[in-house]
Structure prediction request, 243 residues.
Amino acid sequence: MIGAGTQDRPHKMDTVLATVVLVLTVFGVVMVYSAGSERSMLLFGSPHALFLNQLSRAVVGLLLMGLTATLPYRIWRPLALPALVTALLLLAMIFIGGLGESSHGAVRWLRIGPVRFQPSEVAKFALVLFIAAWANQRRERMSRFGSGILVPLGAAGLLALLIFLQPDFSTSALLIAIALLLIFLAGAKPLHLAALVGPLLAVGLLAVRLSPYKWARVQAYLSPHADPNNASYQMLQSWIGLG
Prediction:
């Protein structure tokens, strides 16, 4: 039980996690400058335009991370269910005519007024928040299937289904993986999760096999030299870059 003295202690940031985030952010910004300077010159007449744009966004993100890290985590708990409902509504709005924007055969972007964003990013945050709040309130029941893990699995499944229909297979698979990991850390029985892995893998493999584009990428990975100038071009260039 947390006493009053414990609640009054100042919140300490996880320095290891913060360092990892900072290093990855700096690395990403440097890679944008290294790989995008030529394209930036062609598009904007300056080799630094894309780099400065990415740098400004990274700075804003780090400032927001620092701000939210100082807030008491308890303030997020009442927002868990509203965040989940909001994410579901935003994902559903993509399929309403005129709101979702199509790009490269997928409808993943939503425009509301001047704001354009991907609802799947909201879904990631909402899912983590919802599962954390659910597990915190039902700690003693997380080892049960029906009253413990069924609801968070259902929430993850709904979000993943709406994202899969965009279609966005990788993000939907990522959401399921996040949900399984969080539920496991919350105390779910490994046997319950193991029983889910097989059917989930079967569904994933079936989805890949039925999608010509995804199956072509698998074939390119298995036989990279069969089409070196098209399907396997990026992978082969990555190998060359790595030496």
The chain has two domains: 14-71, 76-210.
